[in-house]
Design brief:
Shape: globular
Structural class: alpha/beta
Number of strands: 10
EC number: 3.2.1.8
Bound molecules: ligand G3I
Keywords: Carbohydrate metabolism, Glycosidase, Hydrolase, Polysaccharide degradation, Secreted, Signal, Xylan degradation
Protein name: Beta-xylanase
Catalytic activity: Endohydrolysis of (1->4)-beta-D-xylosidic linkages in xylans
Strand order of the largest sheet: 1-2-3-4-5-6-8-9
Helix content: 40-55%
Family: Belongs to the glycosyl hydrolase 10 (cellulase F) family.
């Protein structure tokens, strides 16, 4: 029967995809499921393109782990969302704790972005250039980049990425921007100010790490996605998962299925929402239980790669979208 990516393409999306990570790739059953391209037409490396992985010491680049994931995508003819160039987490100590001036950190940032994007040139459908630059209240996160360079670090990162690979789509990516809020307004302002300065930005990634029963309605998600596309950028759901307090119950599972359906349908129904990526497709490798103890079962497949009710919710979100 038709599966997620095949259905998504038929419904007008560019892809349905999933994150994966290097530690998963020794699991042959997992790799077989991941490589089923009627299910997943796109991969995001979950960790191996982050700064601590790619440039662990100054100007020493370590692309091996990232290359393993990108090679798998290439072998499978899957699209790649490359993730992520500038983020306050998973920074190597030399960046996080370095003694910086505006000039030296700008140079280090430009070097990191330029060398990384150049290495993957031609392979990435898109790059998450800057990830999670905002606080919940809409102010800029006090990362080493913001405190040293100011908000201009965002423009500097996008400029360097655009210069290194003019053909990859450049995204700003964040969480808790899936409904109207001060943070969402601030994300809209990032898009506006980059555009106003003539800086290339192509897309806005809505991570969509949700909780069962408290996800925004389909209508709210649609209106919110349109508030971004109205600025002339495409949008994508980039890290969808919907966690619950364990143990799972029949009621939680069916609510989760509805919640998946709503998010997927929202993307399908918005012109210029290009695709949906889940943040791991199976509960075995989900980041959720270790980060939010007592919660889990956030994915479409269970630990044994069996499709859950949530999976069929996602299918309904694609095929039933009006
Ligand atoms: O690399 C070390 C390894 O050397 C060590 O042996 C091992 C022991 O715990 O830890 C490894 O690092 C872990 C890393 O993943 C790689 O597996 C970190 O502890 C762990 O915290 C890290 O978690 C990742 C998290 O980002 C970090 O914030 C998750 O796997 C990854 O799924 C998650 O992804 C983020 C997105 O990039 C951005 N949006 C939110 C999303 C979920 O947090």
């Amino acid at each position: 029967y038709a599966q997620l990516h095949t259905l998504a393409k038929a419904a007008g999306l560019k892809y349905f995809g999933t994150a994966t990570d290097n530690n998963e790739l020794t699991d042959t059953a997992l790799v077989a499921a991941l490589s089923n391209t009627s299910e997943f037409g796109q991969i995001t490396p979950g960790n191996s393109q982050k700064w601590d992985s790619i440039e662990p010491s100054p100007n020493t680049f370590a692309f091996t782990n990232g290359d393993v994931v990108t090679a798998l995508a290439k072998k499978n003819a899957q699209m790649l969302r490359c993730h992520t160039l500038v983020w306050f987490q998973q920074l190597p100590a030399w960046v996080q704790n370095g003694t910086w001036t505006k000039e030296t950190l700008t140079a280090a940032l430009q070097n990191h972005v330029t060398k990384t994007v150049t290495h993957y040139k031609g392979q990435c459908y898109s790059w998450d250039v800057v990830n999670e630059a905002l606080e919940q209240d809409g102010t800029f996160r006090k990362s080493v980049f913001f405190t040293t360079i100011g908000e201009d670090y965002i423009r500097i990162a996008f400029e360097a990425a655009a210069a290194a690979d003019p053909d990859t789509k450049l995204y700003y990516n964040d969480f808790s921007i899936e409904n109207p809020s001060p943070k969402t307004t601030a994300a809209l302002n990032i898009v506006k100010s980059l555009k106003a300065s003539g800086t290339k930005i192509d897309g806005l990634g809505l991570q969509s790490h949700f909780i069962v029963g408290s996800t925004p309605s389909k209508e709210v998600q649609i209106a919110n996605l349109k508030s971004f596309t109205a600025l002339g950028v495409e949008v994508a759901i980039t890290e969808l998962d919907i966690r619950m307090t364990l143990p799972s119950t029949a009621a939680l599972n069916s609510q989760q299925s509805v919640d998946y359906q709503n998010s997927v349908a929202a993307c399908v129904e918005v012109e210029n929402c290009v695709g949906v990526t889940v943040w791991d497709f199976d509960d075995k490798y989900s980041w959720v239980p270790s980060t939010f103890p007592g919660t889990g079962s956030a994915c479409l497949f269970n630990e044994n790669l069996v499709r859950k009710e949530a999976y069929f919710g996602a299918v309904a979100g694609i095929t039933g979208a009006s």
